[in-house]
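Aim 2, interim progress. The first record below pairs a target sequence with its structure tokens.
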Amino acid sequence: MIRFFAPDIAQTGLLPEGESGHCVRVLRKQPGDLIEVVDGKGTLYQCRLIDAHHKGASVEIVGSEPLPKVWAPYITVAVAPTKHADRMEWLIEKLVEIGIDRFVPLRCERSERKELKRERIEKIAVSAMKQSLKAVLPRIDDTTPLFQFLKEATQCDCDRFVGYCDADTPRQLLAKAYQPGRDVTILIGPEGDFSPAEIQACFDAGFTAVTMGDNRLRTETAALVGTDTIHILNQAFSQTNQ
């Protein structure tokens, strides 16, 4: 069954305009039809369509069940957007499918792209959440200056890793550096990498320089591989300790 997203469904009983149009005009749902709705906060609702209006379809909630995320740690991925926005759109889609809690676009000294359209990114995240049968929507931040993000990151009781390309700087393999079960922040810099001042600020903020493996990866690939590594390690740890 196709799922719809309505963050305030429990309070309003209404689908947002975009979801209503898809439900009524595209899928041609009729009053009395059953649909599934997620609120992005961890609940799945079984609903019956009452008024099939393409701008504000109303529903009756006939049941609900908690559908929490399936991973334990809080995963933050902070990435300097690439020059081509479509790569970031691809990345957020895949990150949501795999599972993250927060996505932060970063503005760095050597950033090829200074801003991301948050509304567009959020729409992609919602679509990926529904497609991957999740009910929790990750937090999407506005584009944030790196030094502002680092100041905030020091307040987090979590493992902090920064992907860095300088082979002369001591780096650890992420798969060995991360402690399963711990909240984690993964930081990936721009295509031109961090400036010396920026990488030093990362180290001062408690970030450990890591590599994702022996291959040289694009910005979006490094973010994806890093996130998937965290999930694999946590899943292996969980199965070992069952």
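The second target in this work package is listed in the same format:
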Amino acid sequence: MKTRPEVNQALKTMHIDKLRKGQCKPINAILDRNDVILIAPPSFGKSLIYQIPAILFDGVTVVIEPLLALMHDQVNKLRELGIEAAYLDSTLSWSECQSVMKKLAKEKIKVIFISPERLETGILYDISKHNRIDMVVVDECHCVTMWGSDFRKAYLSIGKYIDKLKHHPVVVALSASVYPEDIDEIAEALSMHDPVIIRRPLFRSNITFSRKTVSNRTEQKKTLLRMLKKHHKNTTIIFCTTKKAVEYVVKTLKGKADYAGEVIEYHGSCKVHEYEMLTGKKHIIVATSALSLGVDIPNVDLVIHFNFPLSIAEYCQMAGRAGREGQKARDILIYNPNDYHMNWGLLQNIKNKTAKDTAVARLDAMKELCEDDDHCIVKTMLNALGDPHKTRCRYCTNCQKQR
């Protein structure tokens, strides 16, 4: 597909020579004023898909992000390129928020980043009083179905606030891990009009998937330390299901001289290490699933799941933090069957019965993947996410057994 002249001009602004394979189609669809749902792997460059149209549209683009780290990272990068961008979040004082709003009123901001909860303050209406909102982007849109019925209900109201605008903007939804059966629900929740659905292959040939089965917490800890000793080179992310598990792993690693100075933790209640994390100053990050959502941490070549993920989609999302620069990387899943009860207990907090039943079914599917010794791990994961693969990856734990 040929790149449009105006897109080439915008690429120069971004200091990019040319688009990657597959990027042209969604960009053109957005420029033609179509709503778009894009499912593409990490490192595809999904942020560029909306940033190019944002530069070319006359009005403002509103980007809804789930994490402060994502907002700050994207705003800093855009500002470095000379593109007026800002965020409104809880880290700003009242006067700082007012300063951002004044710039919006003077049409000096092209891209504004907010959380879904910020919509409840009427921010879209406030922006629209002085600006034409040309586009609303929902990054990590799988959060609509993953979190909307549980602890971030604001995701289910996004479409309601979009519908209140006099001019219906282009709506763009982006993710690396959406179940095929969730697409219609996401489109409806975001008030999308006959969206163009674009799926890119999710297979990442540079990541090797391994699974280590253990029977208790002691063996789980020993396996973690053994895997770090064997494979940790540059930056490692260790994912845990709960804050308590994060703190347990951090305490364990800080008790080891080899890792004590390298370890930081990241979860909903502890974000003080965000700068060190994003700049690569610390090289072992222990985090909950929040960190799996697109945060661009440099030089990650090892991801370890200390607890097994709540779903295959979450597994794929976490693994996607590795090898983003195209380098060889490894994903290691430590499977302790006892963690199932902890995961199941977390899902019981979901009040909506249908959403709870779906979440438990997806947890069970993840448990089946962990206990399957015969089928290719990568093939099973991709098939579940609507990216069917006929061939085995050849390098995962199960494929190695078959060779």
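The radius of gyration is 21 Å. This observation will shape the mutagenesis plan for the next reporting period.
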